[in-house]
Structure formats: structure tokens, C-alpha cells
Design goal:
By secondary structure, the chain is α+β, with helices and mostly antiparallel strands. It is built from six helices and 19 strands. Helix 4 crosses helix 5 and helix 4 packs across helix 6.
Amino acid sequence: MSTELRLADLGEGLSDARITAWLVRPGDAVAADQPVVTVETDKAAVELPAPVAGIVGACYGEPGDLVPVGTVLMRYAGDAASEPAPRLSPGARRRAAAVSDGDARVPLSGLRRATALAVAQAWRTIPHVAEFREIDATALVAARASARASRPTLTYLPFFVLAVARALRANPAFNAALDLEREQIVQRSRFNIGIATALGDGLVVPVLRDADRLNLTEAADALERLIGDARAHRPLPQEHAAVTITNFGSYGTWLGTPIVRSGEASIVGFGRIRDAVIAVGGAPAVRPVLPIAVAADHRLNDGAALARYAAAIADACRDPSWISR
């Protein structure tokens, strides 16, 4: 009697997984609970064990194949010769036929796949409206320089977080989410902020809880822990946020057009601070200038509300004297 190993339901609403490596071959003897294949989901890499001891008869699928829950991955029994021969999945056959042109083909998997799917869904389903501002960042630059006397590694990100939290409090319509299934607007009770964090193979957005309750030191400490956990692939807080901050200026980008995440009301992008000639008291002057891009879900808020929200963020960054340390 042959025994089958099927891809089990891995939980968290996941319907498929990608084979990453086989740990056994046909003809190998395996013990009960011995790992035989590794698969990768959008959440994690998992080793699947043999349910009982036996001899591997056939392994189905190759590394890179995306297989749905319930798929037979392996059959084995005491007599390996009686088992069916291994077969390639349709996906594997397509890839084998396609490499003749010399192009390299890399499976879209793991975090990169999750990022691609999330961004595509957000762009398809959320009607975006955007507002752009440039501010004189002289006071902001001075405030960070002063704070760096006691914290040399301090970035602008804690200032941006506190500025957005302040603007959310003044514009609570942006601390919200749209529940189309129930035809409701969900007004968030806590001011949580997502922090877009680039990893080598994609993007994650850990959530900073209760950002409106933090001072500068607390925000900097919390961000260091949160981003450190994200980059170390440690578990992240499962919290709802209504806004995400993306600090693309840290990569040298002047200005961008960020995409609102599904389930959120807005995203705020901060560009690179650079010297520019602006009018100061009616005369041209060279000052550090910070570009800000604010995109919002147009189903939740209109252009007038967005203008007030963007102005509140810009004002909070232009004069950070209200920020306590």
C-alpha cells in the first residue's frame, strides 16, 4: 500500500506554496517525521515531514513550482519499484521549454511575490488622488542637528512620524479605512503608522503603535526596534494602520508617487532634502528644501480634505518646535 504526502493547509488563508528544495530522492529510506521537502509561502519557509517511515517512490514537482493546497507531493512504500515514475508539473515543463533563448528565469516567490501581489491589488482597486508640497526645511535640519548631539545616528524618520501623527489627529478622516463589504468607514481609535521598510527581496510594512503618544526619543527607539525586527525577519506586530510613511529620500530619491496600501486611507512619501533657491521675504535665498508627496484613497477623502491634511503635515515639518524630546 502506498502512502501519499500532500501539501497540507498551512493556515493564515494561504492557498498555495512554492517548492524550494527536495531533501530526499526516489529510493531513499525515510523515517517518520523526517523532513523530506521544503516549501515557501508568502509568510515563511516550511519543512514538510514524512507521515510514516518507508521508501520514497516518487517526488512530484520541482523547485520553483507553485502548487495548491492538497497537491500530492510524494508517494512512497516498501517497494520502490512498484511506484509511479516521477513526473514534471506543467509549470516545470513550460520553464524547461523556455530556457532555450538563453534568458534566466527566476521564480516569483516569497516576499517579492507578496509585494508584487499587494502592490498590484492596491493599484487596481484604490482610486488615487495626490498632493505635493515643498517646504523650507531650515528649522527641521537644525532640530535634527541639535538632537544628534546626544544621538548621533538620529535620522529624519522620527520627525516625519511625529509630524504625520500630529496631522492625523487634526484630520481624523484620514485615520480610517474603507470596508466595502459592509459599506462602512472604519474610524481607527488608535493612531498607528506603517513604516515602509525595504528588504533585499521585497517590501514589508511594520506598524508603529500609538505614534501620537511618543516623544522624539521614544519614537526613535521604537523605530530602531521595529525596523531591526523587520530586517532580521522576526515576528512583527499585527496591527492596523491607516497611513504608511515611505522615506524614499533616504535612498537619494528627490520625489516619488507612492501607492496607498489596501485597507489604509493614505501614504506619505518624504523625498531627499536638497539645497534650492526659494523666495524668503520676497528675495531669493538658498535653503534646504524637503519635498512631500501625499497620496490618498479618493473614495474616503476628496481633494479639499487632502489639501488640509497635506498642509498639516507640511506645517508640522516646517516648524518642529512643538516636538518634545
